[in-house]
Amino acid sequence: MENKSQTIVLSLKYVLLAILTGVLVGIIDTVFGRGLLTISDFRTGHYLYLIPFLPFAGLLITWLYYHFSETSLKGMTLVFETGQKKREDIPLLLIPLVMSGTWITHLFGGSAGREGVAVQIGAVLSHVLGRRFHLPKDSRVMLITGMAAGFGGLFQTPLTAVFFSMEVIVAGKIQYEALLPALIASYTAAYTSHTLGLEKLYVPLKDTLEISDAGMAVRLIVLGIIFGLTGRLFSFLLAKSKKFFGEKIKNPYFRIGVISIPLALILFLLYNGRYSGLGTNLISAAFSGGMIYSYDWILKLLLTILTLAIGYQGGEVTPLFSIGASLGIVLGGILSISPVHCAALGYAAVFAGATNTLLAPVLIGLEVFGANDMVPFLIVCIFAYLVNGDKSIYGAQEVRK
């Protein structure tokens, strides 16, 4: 009887803390997200004066981390290590450092994302709350709950956030014990951030891709393989680049200060900073009939890798969305499939190929583009996942066979 009572009390704690986590993370996500959008708009209008200072911005970011919390440089690795029970604490200073570092990266034109920041914010906050309320030290439940809140609050795709958080820490194993609190926290964070004015990307696809013949099914499989290999290429090059620059240029100030000079020059010269920032300009162009060049996807891929590999802050997922969407436009013309539908499939499937996850990419396709193409999303994401080869943008991800 006593064990049953303890279980009920623990479950109630998880539910209440999930609500609290969702509200707090939703507020922080809003501050971070709206700040990032304002910064991005400002940079777009003043790129001539800002991108040339990218090397100095890199030096400032490096100094902030080494001065206040060098451990926080590990970023998402800290979250994975905690989830895998390899460490007990995540520095609370990680939150202001990763937020400010990402804002500075975007202000001065670095090519990076934002989801990693939101996930880290949620994970740190939920981990601290779990400790304060004396939850089991070895439990992943609160960590996953915070990750779901961070992702869901920023992107307002709560179902995607829940399953991403449950399947990403250990690839091949879904942490279902965290389902209820993660679901509550994710929806609470999404509702909170939406109420506070953070907008969601929603592009409902009006038509449906008919899979009435073997030819269309084969083309969808080909799409899945190409998108999966693209995600795998991103993961492979990111890991190799980080290792290469870390070994060849050991001084972090010299590394970011010197390599960012040609990076800034390239970003400055290529179409007025077209490849700076999140890549939402490419996503918008893909779904609104704007100009997409055949090489947009590869340039965005390479410049994002270079930005992150030398020490700038930000996530990888939004650039992956833009890479997938712009590549989809190109492949749609080649394979005689609606380019907009291909862009939507690429948006989800490159994410699958780069993160070594399956359910979350399918769900983001449904939450962002509607349920009309559920079967095509499933087919393309499955094959993207299968050709991934267990490669991931998260080097600390554990793979369970």
Would you write up a description of this structure?
This protein has helices spanning 2-45, 47-50, 54-68, 76-83, 94-107, 115-132, 141-155, 158-168, 179-195, 214-248, 252-269, 280-288, 296-309, 317-335, 339-355, 359-369, 374-386, and strands at residues 170-171, 398-399. It has two domains: 2-195, Orthogonal Bundle (Clc chloride channel); 214-399, Clc chloride channel (Orthogonal Bundle), CATH 1.10.3080.10. With 401 residues, the protein is mainly α. The radius of gyration is 20 Å and the shape is globular. Helix 10 packs across helix 17 and helix 13 (296-309) packs antiparallel against helix 14 (317-335). The mean pLDDT is 92. It has 17 helices and two strands. The chain has a two-stranded parallel sheet.
Mean pLDDT across every amino acid position: 92
Order of helices and strands: HHHHHHHHEHHHHHHHHHE
Instruction: Report strand order across the widest sheet.
Output: 1-2
How many domains in all? 2
Which parts are unreliable, with pLDDT below 50 for 5 consecutive residues or more? none
Quickly name the level 1 CATH class of the largest domain. Answer: Mainly Alpha
CATH architecture of the largest domain: Orthogonal Bundle
Give the number of helices.
17
Could you outline the blueprint of secondary structure elements for this entry?
Elements: H1 2-45, H2 47-50, H3 54-68, H4 76-83, H5 94-107, H6 115-132, H7 141-155, H8 158-168, E1 170-171, H9 179-195, H10 214-248, H11 252-269, H12 280-288, H13 296-309, H14 317-335, H15 339-355, H16 359-369, H17 374-386, E2 398-399
Parallel strand pairs: 1-2
Helix pairs in contact: 1-5, 1-6, 1-7, 1-9, 3-5, 3-11, 5-6, 6-7, 7-8, 7-9, 8-9, 8-16, 10-13, 10-14, 10-15, 10-17, 12-14, 13-14, 14-15, 15-16, 15-17, 16-17
